[in-house]
Amino acid sequence: MLTVLIELPGGEGIVLRDDGEIVVTGDVNDESGSPIDRLDYRPITRRLDGDSSLVGGLLPPGACGAIAYDEVIAADGARGGRFGHRARRTA
Q: Exposure string (b/e) for 51-83, b if CB count within 10 Å is 16 or more?
């Protein structure tokens, strides 16, 4: 069974699998995707349809937030131990 942590309108998102692994996926009902390494605090980016991307990751100990910037410098902040953001690319 998967625990959905973040779900976007298109079904993409970030899930917690039964084995404890957190995965950035194109479908929150699917266990496959890009695993988030609990010791590497760099974000994972997954291309979505059109001009969008899903950005997710874990915050390091002591961090109280994160900001994800898209290519037009629109920011989306996060609080807590994990974050997810849908970024839109522009030409």
A: ebbbbbbbbeeeeeebebebeeeeeeebeeebb
